């Protein structure tokens, strides 16, 4: 039976909530980890002991209240434990994106002034040590996985287990002081510092208080009725606010278990094994899952393809209505139940979503077709609009009131308004304290009354109070004829096609729109294999004439669909090219959360943009790239530029 109780509101920090969990649901699973193919599970009581030992060990090494400690690595219980152990010492956890290159890590560690760094493994230790001469504040490094580190200088390098053992040895002398620090902690103390992805410049350190995070955790546990019987799979970057809320904020308050996969390669199978009830993913993950489904279906027999299409067409027609409890005819219900046995059930099982009762997507807009696909399978997927500065929650869709074109009404406790320029603002108990060491940026974003500018353009619908986000305010513009230019809407339509991994629309202030496309190597490579199309590299496949024909078909299909939206029909794509390389975070073209850095892309590929508008049929491109080991190189190619058929606009037709 579910334990629906939550820690009393008087418990206003996570070390205090941890103690309550250990006492009141000590035998309930709190975290799981898969290693060497075997799942290990920890109860709340065991987790409390592991965290307490680590906190005492860090204190013995000299960690003081107010110090900053960076955490670097993939999702592991020990790293999550580190967050609360650091808080127990009165210090501040500062998680860092684990795929950051050394220079990116250096910026965050230096800006935060981190004294300690806790790393997952040798890879992260090496990156930190490669820039250690530029990090005078860093004094101690702790690692979880000892492989490859035996011959390193251990004078300031410690294993996680050794730090815990040190804490246990010093327990009698240090625990009374630690207890005082925990008891003195309060809602206004810093809970965590999270760095933004840096879409428009250097990442900013968002300071979030205990009140911010406990508000987000308590309100969401109540909103979605989360209990200790729920479970999640933690696979998103630990430095991202969403993961911090779901894996610590909600987990500690709701009491559910957080499971960590063995690795990126085993994520799909681990997801199926855990069968989470609560699932969160940004649109890119849902896009990739859909791509994998479509690839498998291309390899299926003609009979299976026909059956899949027949039942998916029916799911598209009635699936969302059945999920929302709307009236559906008896025959349609019967056909849907048959589809559940033959198609939908096995498909959800393959996706690891057979037990999901609640799923969210956020981070950026999801394509309406992708959103509808998952809901048609009776997966309760909802859109959530949030920011790091809001401790995630600004708006959310409610059960029975789900639409693909909005992100729902304001979250409980959140106030919304839209200014005269169309920018969305919010105010709530989750609003961040400040940008660390950036008072000017803080003042630009948060006014004296606590209202925060989102940087997104949108409007609140009369009657429903649903928020509709058009795009990033800085990205929304006007075409030369005055019609609206909103790139994200069109890009999401393009990315519905499994063959398109990324798209960048260009057109602000111009007579017509053009686009860069990235192919999805998995999907297009599978197509090439089935169609006897030989290629030796991503670049060769991307430039193949048959691939261009495929891309042109997708672009023209999107153009045709744009006619149904009079506000955005001017954003149809007249010309496009397929880039010779994937946009990459290591090259500065994407953020670590996989958002396009438009200014960087526009600057880096200016000659290509010029060619799209000067009538050229091809353009030579030479681009610097960063390899996995940090070396620089360059790739070059002559790219074809193609014209696309533009559908007749309804205004013109009228």
Please give a structural write-up.
- The chain has 654 residues and is an alpha/beta fold.
- The protein is built from 22 helices and 27 strands.
- Strands 4-3-5-6-7 form a five-stranded parallel sheet, with helices on both faces. Strands 23-24-25-27-26 form a five-stranded mixed sheet, with helices on both faces. A four-stranded mixed sheet has the order 2-1-11-10, with helices on both faces.
- The mean pLDDT is 93.
Rg from Cα = 25 Å
The helix/strand class is alpha/beta
CATH class of the largest domain: Alpha Beta
| Fourth CATH level, the homologous superfamily of the largest domain | ANL, N-terminal domain
Under the CATH scheme, the architecture of the largest domain is: 3-Layer(aba) Sandwich
Low-confidence stretches: none
Form type: globular
Oligomer state of the chains in this structure:
single chain
What level of helicity do the residues show?
A: 25-40%
* Biggest sheet overview: 5 strands, parallel
Instruction: Let me know the average pLDDT.
Output: 93
Kindly identify the CATH topology of the largest domain.
Rossmann fold
The strand line-up of the biggest sheet is: 4-3-5-6-7
**Strand-residue proportion:** 15-25%
Span between termini: 62 Å
Number of β-strand runs: 27
The tally of structural domains comes to 3
Helical segment tally? Answer: 22
């Amino acid at each position: 039976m579910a334990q629906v109780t939550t820690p009393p509101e008087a418990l206003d920090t996570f070390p205090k909530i941890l103690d309550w969990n250990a006492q009141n649901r000590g035998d309930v699973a709190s975290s799981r980890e898969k290693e060497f193919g075997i799942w290990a599970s920890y109860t709340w009581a065991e987790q409390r002991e592991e965290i307490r030992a680590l906190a005492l060990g860090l204190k013995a090494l000299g960690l003081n209240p107010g110090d900053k400690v960076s955490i670097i690595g993939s999702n592991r219980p020990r790293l999550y434990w580190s967050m609360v152990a650091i808080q127990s010492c009165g210090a501040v956890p500062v998680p860092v994106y684990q795929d950051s290159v050394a220079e990116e890590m250096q910026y965050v560690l230096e800006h935060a002034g981190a004294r300690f760094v806790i790393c997952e493994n040798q890879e992260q230790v090496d990156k930190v040590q490669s820039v250690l001469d530029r990090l005078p504040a860093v004094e101690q490094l702790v690692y979880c996985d000892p492989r490859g580190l035996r011959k390193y200088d251990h004078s300031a390098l410690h294993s996680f287990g050794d730090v815990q053992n040190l804490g246990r040895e010093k327990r009698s002398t240090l625990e009374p002081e630690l207890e005082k620090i925990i008891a003195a902690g309060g809602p206004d103390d810093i809970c965590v510092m999270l760095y933004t992805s840096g879409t428009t410049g250097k990442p900013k350190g968002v300071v979030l208080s205990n009140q911010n995070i406990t508000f987000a955790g308590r309100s969401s546990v109540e909103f979605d009725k989360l209990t200790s019987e729920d479970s999640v799979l933690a696979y998103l970057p630990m430095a991202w606010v969403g993961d911090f809320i779901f894996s610590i904020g909600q987990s500690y308050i709701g009491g559910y278990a957080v499971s960590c996969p063995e690795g990126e390669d085993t994520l799909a199978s681990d997801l199926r094994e855990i069968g989470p009830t609560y699932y969160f993913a940004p649109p890119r993950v849902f896009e990739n899952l859909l791509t994998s489904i479509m690839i498998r279906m291309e390899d299926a027999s003609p009979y299976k393809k026909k059956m899949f299409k027949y039942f998916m067409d029916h799911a598209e027609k009635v699936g969302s209505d059945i999920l929302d409890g709307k009236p559906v005819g008896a025959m349609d219900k019967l056909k849907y139940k048959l589809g559940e046995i033959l198609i939908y059930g096995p498909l959800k099982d393959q996706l690891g979503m057979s037990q999901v009762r609640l799923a969210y997507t956020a981070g950026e807009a999801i394509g309406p077709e992708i959103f509808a696909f998952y809901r048609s399978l009776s997966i309760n997927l909802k859109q959530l609009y949030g920011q790091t500065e809001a401790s995630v929650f600004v708006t959310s869709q409610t059960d029975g009131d789900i639409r693909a074109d909005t992100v729902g009404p304001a979250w409980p406790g959140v106030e919304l308004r839209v200014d005269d320029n169309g920018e969305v603002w919010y105010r709530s108990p989750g609003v961040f304290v400040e940008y660390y060491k950036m008072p000017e940026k803080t003042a630009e974003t948060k006014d004296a009354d606590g209202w925060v500018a989102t940087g997104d353009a949108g409007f609140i619908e009369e009657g429903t109070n649903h928020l509709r986000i058009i795009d990033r305010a800085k990205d929304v513009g006007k075409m030369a004829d005055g019609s609206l230019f909103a790139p994200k809407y069109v890009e999401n339509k393009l990315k519905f096609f499994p063959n398109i991994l990324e798209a960048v629309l260009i057109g602000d202030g111009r007579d017509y729109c053009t686009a860069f496309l990235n192919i999805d190597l998995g999907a297009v490579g599978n197509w090439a294999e089935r169609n006897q199309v030989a290629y030796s590299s991503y670049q060769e496949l991307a430039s193949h004439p048959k691939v261009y024909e495929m891309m042109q078909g997708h672009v023209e299909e999107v153009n045709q669909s744009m006619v149904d939206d009079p506000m955005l029909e001017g954003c149809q794509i007249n010309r496009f090219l397929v880039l010779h390389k994937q946009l990459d975070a290591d090259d500065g073209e994407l953020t670590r959360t996989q958002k396009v850095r438009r200014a960087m892309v526009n600057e880096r590929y200016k000659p290509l943009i010029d060619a799209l508008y000067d009538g050229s049929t091809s353009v030579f491109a030479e681009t610097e790239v960063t390899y996995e080991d940090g070396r620089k190189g360059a790739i070059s190619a002559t790219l074809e530029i193609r014209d696309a058929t533009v559908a007749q606009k309804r205004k013109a037709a009228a």
